[in-house]
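Entry 14. Structure prediction run on the chain below.
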Amino acid sequence: MQLLKHDPDGPHKLVRVETMGCAVNVLVGLHDENGTPVIAVEVEPALPDELGRVWEANGPAVVLVRCLGRQDERPPAEAVEDDRHVASLHDLLAAGTEPREIITP
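Output returned:
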C-alpha cells in the first residue's frame, strides 16, 4: 500500500490518484451553504482503460464528507442533510483548479 498525506492548507486543493480501472479525485477546501467544511470524493471509472476494458462505478460516484465539528460538539443529524449547494468537482475543474500530480512508479 502506498500512503499519501495531503496538506489541505497547501496550494493544491485537488488530489488525483489514477490506477487501472479508475481515477479517484479528492477535492478539499469546499464549504456548503452554511459554511461547513466539505470534502468531495469522486470515482471516475476508466472508459476504457489501458487494455481497452470499460469499467463502471457500482454505487455513488461522488461522496461528500462533511465536518461535523468536534466530537463533543456534533450537531444533530438533520442539520447536515442538504448537499445541493456544494459545487460539483467538474465545475471547480472548469474554473481552473489544477490537480496535484501524485502518481509515483
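The first strand starts at residue 14 and ends at 19.
Filed with the rest of this week's runs.
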